[in-house]
Amino acid sequence: MAVRIGLTGGIGSGKSTVLAMLQELGAAAVDADAISRATTAAGGSAIPRVAQVFGPEFITSDGALDRMKMRERAYAEPDARRELEQIIHPLVSEEIARQVGAALAAGARCIVFDIPLLVESGRWRRQLDRVLVVDCEPETQVARVVARSGLSAEEVRAIIAAQAPRALRLAAADLVICNEGLTLQALRNEVEQAARTFGL
């Protein structure tokens, strides 16, 4: 039976780098965020139902969800967000189950679930064997994201404030990789050490 690891961390923590390293070591990855985005991308599985529930004006000319329009609607009507989630979540769960099945069929010993809202959602914990949190100081997060994204420090701080509090993430962790002041090689060493405990 494959070990199921939940991977999470705040924006700019280095979570994507850690995931790539775990994949290099043989872990199968399931990216819940990418799956969710794909359902509302052009031709995504949620699009017909979104058009039915919210109206065709919420679909762009290339067949994707009009995110700006949906954001405005959700802001004006809090129920709209819940309605959208009721469309998307079952499709995401279905696709995750399909990817897990494929990974198990391929003989994966470890499946890493990349779940940005792992701590916030609550429903994930029961499905995982362990939770791995990638952590660093908030100012390091800000500096990294500003450097790579062109967002201002204020904008990044607002994103961090909207995510689960750092203390809550750390409290949910079975294992923490502190990605503060590490070279890429030192980070890889940390990841390899963690991977050994996952059977990789």
* Radius of gyration, CA atoms, in whole angstroms: 18 Å
What's the story with the biggest beta sheet? 5 strands, parallel
**Total DSSP E strands:** 5
Mean pLDDT, nearest integer? 92
Helix content: 55-70%
Low-confidence stretches are none
Query: N-to-C SSE series?
Result: EHEHHHHEHEHHHEH
Structural descriptors:
globular, alpha/beta, 10 helices, 56% helix, 200 residues, 5-stranded parallel sheet, 13% strand
Produce the secondary structure layout.
Layout: E1 3-9, H1 15-24, E2 28-31, H2 32-39, H3 47-54, H4 67-76, H5 78-105, E3 110-114, H6 118-121, E4 130-135, H7 138-149, H8 153-162, H9 166-172, E5 175-178, H10 184-197
Parallel strand pairs: 1-3, 1-4, 2-3, 4-5
Describe this structure in words.
The protein is an alpha/beta fold. It contains 10 helices and 5 strands, in the order E-H-E-H-H-H-H-E-H-E-H-H-H-E-H. The chain has helices at about 15-25, 30-40, 45-55, 65-75, 80-105, 120, 140-150, 155-160, 165-170, 185-195, and strands spanning about 5-10, 30, 110-115, 130-135, 175-180. A 5-stranded parallel β-sheet has the order 2-3-1-4-5, with helices on both faces. Helix 2 crosses helix 5, helix 4 packs across helix 5 and helix 7 (about 140-150) crosses helix 8. The longest helix has 28 residues, at about 80-105. The radius of gyration is 18 Å and the shape is globular. About 25% of the residues are buried. The model has no long low-confidence stretch (mean pLDDT about 90).
Summarize the structure.
This protein is α/β, with parallel strands linked by helices. Helices cover 56% and strands 13% of the residues.
